[in-house]
Design goal:
Radius of gyration: 19 Å
Strand content: 15-25%
Strand order of the largest sheet: 1-14-13-12-2-3-4
CATH architecture of the largest domain: 3-Layer(aba) Sandwich
CATH superfamily of the largest domain: HAD superfamily/HAD-like
Order of helices and strands: EEHEHEHEEEHHEEEHEHEHEHHE
Helix content: 25-40%
Largest sheet: 7 strands, parallel
Shape: globular
Length: 278
């Protein structure tokens, strides 16, 4: 692991950059300082790769409101929600088609108009569960107890469209993500199929968008458990930005070690460490 001042110090070593959004360029409210100029200065092809249950077009629209433009600041965008959509369209998931699903969450548009995939309102008639968009105001452990009990008894697979456990908001507070809800279902005996990082399929899907021959790739993220382990699973380098989840975990542990020492002590898979993208 080597500390660097800016991602611009190393990007020219790579053929492709994969970059997280939340915690790296964006805090859920606004861009971090100098992000726009930094992204525009990167000449290596860049693909945003994010655990978000939103589809790609919704996220591109969000980035547009932040004045980040496709073709100018990034080349492509892959979200775990979009990866799920494409996996249903190409029938690559372990389902019998046509299939029915029970939807849980707040981002139902991500599953709208999918072929041979029909929504039902009763767990007893569903072939699977789709979880997309945790509602922080709901107590999912209580609200979903009956549904999860029935679903686990029927051995229904829950497709989790955002495997993140927590995210850090613009006031530096941790908020629960879909991964926590999916973990609860798994604890109750249910089968969970995660659609995003750190699993290798979403990395392969993003990398294959570029049709490069044996590329050298860098993943930029703020979380070891998803970004870092995903990079390790895909045998690519990882740059950790200490503006998001991992830094929050270090702070919450009240460690006597510096953040860098804490990472080294835990033998984390970090190639580059930087305070912010630029």
């Amino acid at each position: 692991m080597k500390k660097i001042n800016s991602i611009l110090d190393v990007v020219d070593q790579y053929d492709l950059i994969l970059c997280d959004i939340w915690g790296v360029i964006y805090n859920g409210h606004q861009l971090f300082p100098n992000v726009k100029d930094c992204l525009k200065s990167i000449k290596t092809p860049l693909c945003f790769l994010t655990n978000s249950s939103l589809n790609a077009s919704s996220l591109v629209d969000l980035l547009n409101t932040l004045e980040l433009k496709k073709g100018e600041h990034f080349e492509k965008l892959v979200s775990s929600g979009e990866f799920f959509r494409q996996s249903i369209i190409t029938q690559r998931l372990p389902l019998q088609y046509p299939s029915t699903y029970l939807f849980i969450g707040s981002n139902s548009h991500v599953v709208n108009d999918l072929p041979n995939f029909n929504r039902v309102d009763d767990v007893d008639t569903a072939d699977c569960i789709v979880l997309a968009g945790n509602n922080p105001s709901s107590n999912f452990k209580t609200d979903l107890k009956e549904i999860f009990t029935k679903a686990a008894e029927r051995k229904l697979t829950l497709f989790c469209l955002n495997p993140d456990m927590i995210a850090i908001n613009n006031t530096n507070e941790a908020i629960l993500c879909d991964g926590q809800v999916a973990h609860n279902y798994k604890q109750n005996g249910g089968n969970v199929y995660s659609m995003g990082k750190p699993d290798k399929p979403i990395f392969d899907y993003a990398i294959n968008q570029f049709q490069l021959d044996s590329p050298k790739i860098l993943m930029i993220g703020d979380t070891i458990g998803t970004d870092g382990m995903g990079a390790k699973n895909s045998n690519i380098d990882f740059a950790l930005v200490s503006s998001g989840v991992e830094h929050h975990i270090w702070q919450s542990e009240k460690s006597q070690l510096s953040f860098e020492e804490w990472l080294i002590h835990a033998n984390q898979p970090v190639t580059w460490l930087l305070d912010s993208l630029s």
